[in-house]
Amino acid sequence: xxxxKFGAAIKNGGYDFIAVHGQADKPxxxxxxxxxxxxLDADCLWGLDTFATQDKxxxxxxxxxxxxxxxxxxxxxxxxxxxxxxxxxxxxxxxVGAVMGAKNLKALVIHTTGANTxxxxxxxxxxxxVKDHNKILKTHVRRKKMTTYGTTFMxxxxxxxxxxxxxxxxxxxxxGVEKIDGEAFQKLKTAxxxxxACSTRCGNVFKAAEGPYKGAExxxxxxxxxxxxxxxIANTDAGAIIAADALCDRxxxxxxxMGVVAGFVMELYEKGIxxxxxxxxxxxxxxxxxxxxxxxxxxxxxxxxxxxxxxGTRKAGQLxxxxxxxxxxxxxxxxxxxxxxxxxxAHGLGYxxxxxxxxxxxxxxxxxxxGFMQPREIDRFADEGKGxxxxxxxxxxxxxETGILCNFADTNITPQLICDLFVSATGRSxxxxxxxxxxxxxxxxxxxxxxxxxxxxxRKDDTLPERMFKEPLKNAGPSTGQVxxxxxxLLDEYYDFMGYDKxxxxxxxxxxxxxxxxxxxxxxxFRRQVSSDADKS
Length: 537
Ligand code: SF4
What we know:
CATH superfamily of the largest domain: Aldehyde Ferredoxin Oxidoreductase Protein, subunit A, domain 3
Strand order of the largest sheet: 2-1-6-3
CATH class of the largest domain: Mainly Alpha
CATH architecture of the largest domain: Orthogonal Bundle
Number of strands: 11
Strand content: 5-15%
Structural class: alpha+beta
CATH topology of the largest domain: Aldehyde Ferredoxin Oxidoreductase Protein, subunit A, domain 3
Bound molecules: iron/sulfur cluster
Helix content: 40-55%
Radius of gyration: 23 Å
Shape: globular
Largest sheet: 4 strands, mixed
């Protein structure tokens, strides 16, 4: 999922969704309009960065009504954490850009023609709900804070809680954090940005005012990028974070994974696992932002050590050997985001059980971060009693993303408001009650899990990096000393809540309850296989 206007452009362009099957035999871009779909030669675009690609396409098709989602060199080179870029927004996590690259697909281009907004079942009711809600948002404190700061205000908050990951998740507080917190970035703000029809407009454009990166400009960085190019590599130069963010957008890279890759390299260098010779002459010390830029370029182009790092930290650790894998901070191979799971354990359980791996968005545990009281209050340090909350968060998120509702624009959104919006938009009476739409959310999470089961995932994959079990969190203020002690209990609680068996596979009863009986046979086949493997070992 990414911000911007592309999702709305798909619908306004006359389509419900785009599914791309197979692989083109040469670089191609797809042009969609109300007249139909064309597959066009992308030779002249291949090799260009994402901004140049969009400029060139707009030169040909016009600046208005032309909406583009494209990849940069990282996607073309099949970097496993390549992003899809639309305007300056990224759909980044999980390597979606590499999927486009593997298809030789440089860009999707949609031409919308003016007022083709989709029909609503009850337009008047829908617009009244939106208008009433916008009235509340106008004066709402959270909305105002999001509009002013975006997510940059999270930096000092996470630092105070001691869960701002520092030096590849070794520590939880960063000396000098005030140089990269929300107030510091406010001084660099030059404009704001909003996605399609958003009244929160949390996007910020920042420009470095001094230092070696003076003049560098980016739409962002958000909190996650401040973590990944800040705390993760012990860097407090805001200009470097802005410039690295812009470079990743141009090359088409996920900033979270890229920053964690850089932290991984710095720790391997510190521990003597990678030498300067193995790093193409680089000597990447903590806080070395010059090394960060070299690593970004090398990864995107798969040059030298970048060719190994482009596989992501888990695979890179296996390829490097010498125990390097221990320092890969991932869940299911996806680099962890900016909340240390040892001192926010429902968050950690969310990372471990998320069907896409280490994602903060898949089931954000707001209960631990901002005292959210639903479905109930929890103690972020407690070793047990988190399974139901982690499951509840994932189901809630699936409902919201189906909506589609942005995490940052959900101020004062109630389950009933979501239902009312669904019903007035679609006319479907089965969407009128929250308990019904929650079932849709549960079905989405469960079906994704079935997909993973088919691909060989089971309980063994629902886990966190070894560091989280073996090394108590250091230099982390109130979180110092926290460690994950009872992963097995947490998993059992979560599986119980979700209706999964002890191997993390949905039970036949749960599949039938969710109307997924058609995949029960296949899941049972893998269940037998995993049980027999466990018996043998
Ligand atoms: S609140 Fe969400 S939809 Fe609005 S501008 Fe921010 S990211 Fe985009």
